[in-house]
Each structure stands twice: as structure tokens, then as C-alpha cells.
Amino acid sequence: MVGPALEDNYPLIGRRRFLLTSGGALLAAVFTRPALARLTVQEALAVFANGAEIKEGRIRLEIPPLVENGNLVGATVTVDSPMTEADHVKRIALFNEKNPQADMAVFHLGPRAGRAEVSTRLRLATTQVVTAVCEMSDGGFWASKAHVIVTLAACVETL
Amino acid sequence: MSAARWFLPAASAVLLSGVLMASQEEAPTNEKRSGLDYVSPETRAMQEDDTSNPGMLWVLDGETLWNRAEGENGQSCASCHGDAEQNMRGVAARYPVFDTDSKFPVDLQGRINQCRQARQKTDPLEYESDALLALTAYVAHQSRGMPVAPGADSRLAQFHENGRRLYEKSIGQLDLACSSCHDERAGERLAGAIIPQAHPTAYPLYRLEWQTLGSLQRRLRNCMIGVRAEPYAYGSLELVELELYLMSRAEGLPVETPGVRP
Amino acid sequence: MARTLVNVPETARAGEIIEIKAMIAHPMETGHRVDAKGATIPRNIINRFECVYDGATVFAADLYPAVSANPFFSFTTVATRSGAIRFIWTDDQGAVETASAEITVT
């Protein structure tokens, strides 16, 4: 079983190899675990990519490194793509490490978008890593991640 | 400062020492500052762009409600007040005002409910209901950019004075007054947040913590709960008196409704 | 009363990439919160958003509780022809909200 902290223990090259080889095994793990358990980011990515290899690059996740409140964190995802019939982004997904559920949002787009750029607002339960992954029309998957520090609010309404 | 304030839980004591350390680094300022000056660039950008400011959802809703007939007489706000863009401009900048019928000060929310009951012959709206927040935000929004300009109404003097007294009175288990933080330590840090000067110029405002629009009364009660005091009830005279005093402190700052804060 | 706020340029040249913003008032109740009596507040989120323009869905989103209350999206589309750009939000209770904005393409 893959623990949630494993990804951070791997240097970039090692993790790339890890993503390359373990998609199928992760996918198998997802379907044999108790239904209520939270998927790890790696498992959620494997489900999204249906076990296919996910590479680093081509996608950029802009999110403030330090936020005042985790209830509303602006995020913008941009993918390096010409967005033509022949070569475009089909889906963009966002996953988190430490919310009750790994999935955040899946965006569906195509050549009529003109540009692969989407912004939304996310909830982050605590300081954690957010991962953005895209599926290209050629079947390739690309990912990027960003670390967000969620600061503690001093005066909250409920104690 | 009373001795009791030093008997704080350990976590609060750490926070307080952080505040004292910060005070040596940052020069105090006498300049009046909106809380907007202390929010992150992302939060400020959200407030300043009407197509991304979530508070505008309530403002738009308020416009619909302004024109909707309600109650026995079939009258809308617009039936008497006409075009809000013209006739409500500047109103929020001078509220709360003295109400000649009740002989008490009235805030915008109170005035809206008073109109509903006396003129429209319908039920008052509940505090923090979307409808009351929407109407209040719509009216206050008409004054956006205008400087806060409380009138010099001598009939308000005693209520204003009581508001000042409430602001400076230590309350709750933490034995803190509004002024302990918002005068003596404004601009310094409490945990991750900078303590603002408590100018209520952007209400009703969208608070990320609340995930919705909220009134100044909700925020004031929030602070009272924070210092472990029993908060005054929604619609109580004390909350209006506090608003009266706070608005006089904020004189000259622009109205921002709908504001966005963390 | 569901409130929506959409922003589409009034005019665009054919082939121009335009930016669209859409926001709706919705609590996006996560299903992880409890009320004052300790009972779980049932999940009710907008789970699907679509933007339809010139005969096709040009953008769609599947949403989870990690999307903020009063969900906001901005995205782009290529201006093709004059007409309505429609927006459709659907929540867990099956409530559907729509909005529409006209664009003139020259």
C-alpha cells in the first residue's frame, strides 16, 4: 500500500519513475480498499489517468503559496497546448493531499476553448500540496503540483 | 491594562508575545486605514473586480428585491424611493441616523425592516437572512467610493457616547475591550492576521471564513464571542451604538460595500 | 432564489479568444459539517457546470466539495457567431439554474 507521504520522499527523478511504473498497481489498490477510505493523491491520479503514465511538465498551476483562509483559494491552471482539433487538452483535474476527499474538480475542454486556461476557487482543509493534471488529445497525461500554506485565523466565529 | 489579562491560556500568551515582538519592528501609524489595506493581494483583487467579487451576487439580488412589491399595499422600495442609484447614493455613508419616531438611532438594516413593517405592511426580514443582507448591500453599494460622513446630529450624542464607552470597556473571560486590539495593537499581528483599525466601511461584506455575506452586527458578535463575552443580540441598541461610534472613527474613509475579507 | 453572475464580452471579432467568468450563489455544503446538535449536514453541492455556445458544450466542470462556496470559474472560448452563451449549474438535489449572455460577433 502506498502511503500519502511517499511522494514527498522521492526526488523528482525517482518520483517520475514511480509514476511511470506504479499506475496499474495503484488502480488495483483503489478497487480493493474499503469504500469510505480516502484515496491518496497517487491513487486518485491513477484513476483519472486510468493507470496511464503521468509525466511532469506542460501544465502550470498558479496558486498563492500562502493563503489567509482555506475556504477560498484562487487557482489557475494553464496548459501549454495549441488547442487545435489535432492537438488539444481534453480534461484538467485538481487533486489535494489532505482534504477529506482527494478529488477537487475536473474541467472538460477542447479546441473551441482557444486557450487551455481555467481559474476556480478551492477549499483547502490545511497546509498541503495541490496537484493539477491534464489529459491531452494524444492520450498523454501531464502533471504539476504546488504547495500551499494555509495560515491560522486568529478570530474565528465558532470556538 | 488589568492584571487579569495576563492570566491567558498558554497559546494566547504566545500570540500576545508575538504581538509585542512585532510592535518593535513595525512603526505605529496614525493614518486611518481600511481593513482592505491588510488583506492579501488576491483578496483585494477579488473585491475590486465586480465580476469576481462574490458580494456582488447579493447586490444584484438586492436590486431585484428593491423593485419587488411586497405586503398589503403592494409597494416595493422603489415605489417610494424610486431609483436607488440616484436616491440611495450617500445614504450608507451617513448611517446610522436618529429615528424621529422611535427616538433611537437606526442602522440601515433596522431602517429597511422599519419600512417593511410601517410602509409595506409586511414582516421584517430576519437578521443575516440573504434577503436582508441583499437589500442592505444594494443600498450601501450605492455609496461605494463616497467618504463616510456621519452627520452632526445632537440627538445622537448620548448614543454615540455610549458606543464609545462600549468600545473601550473590557469584556469577557479574556477581559479585552475593542480598543485593546483595534486601537492599541492595530497593524500588529494576531496569529496569521493583521489586526485592522476596525473601520466598518465595507459592510455587509463577504468573509472567506463565513463563506457568505455578513453584517457588521455578525462581525461585532464574532469579536465578542472571541473574547469569551456574551454577545449583544441582533438588533440590540448596543450594536447600533457601537456602529455609530465606529462610523464616526471611520469618517473620511470610502464606503467599499461589498467588501471582501479573510 | 439562486443568483448568478456571468461576464461575457458584448462584442468580439470572429476567431477571437474571449474570457468568460461565471459565479453562482450556492453554499456548496460539503457533507462533512455538523449542525449545532451534532447531526451531519447532508452534502449538497453544485456537481456539474456547463457552458453552451454555438451548438456545443464549450466548457464543463465536474465539481467536488473542495470547490469553494459560491463557485467561480473563468475560462476561454473562441468567438464563432453572434448569439446566446448559456450557463447551466446542477446541484446534488437536482436543482438546475441557468443564465445566458448575448455576444455579437463581427
Please, could you describe this protein's structure?
By secondary structure, chain A is an alpha+beta fold. Chain A has helices at 6-9, 12-30, 41-48; strands at 54-56, 59-62, 66-67, 73-79, 89-96, 103-108, 117-122, 128-136, 141-150. In chain A, strands 1, 3, 5, 6, 8 and 9 form a six-stranded mixed beta sheet that branches. A three-stranded antiparallel beta sheet of chain A has the order 2-4-7, with no helix packed on it. In chain A, a hairpin with a 4-residue loop joins strand 8 (128-136) and strand 9. Chain B is mainly alpha-helical and 262 residues long. Chain B is 43% helix and 7% strand. Chain B has helices at residues 10-25, 41-48, 55-66, 77-81, 84-87, 91-94, 108-118, 130-141, 157-168, 178-182, 216-226, 237-249, and strands spanning 97-99, 104-106, 189-190, 193-194, 205-207, 212-214, 260-261. In chain B, helix 3 (55-66) crosses helix 8, helix 7 (108-118) crosses helix 8 and helix 9 (157-168) crosses helix 12. The radius of gyration of chain B is 19 Å and the shape is globular. Helices cover 0% and strands 53% of the residues of chain C. Chain C is built from no helices and eight strands. A five-stranded mixed beta sheet of chain C has the order 2-8-7-4-5, with no helix packed on it. The A-C interface holds A 71-73, 94, 96, 99-101, 103-110, 112-115, 117-124 and C 17-18, 30, 32, 53, 56-69, 71-78, 80.
What key phrases describe this protein's structure?
heterotrimer; A: 159 residues; alpha+beta; 6-stranded mixed beta sheet; 3-stranded antiparallel beta sheet; 9 strands; 35% strand; flat; disordered N terminus; C: 106 residues; mainly beta; 5-stranded mixed beta sheet; 8 strands; 0% helix; elongated
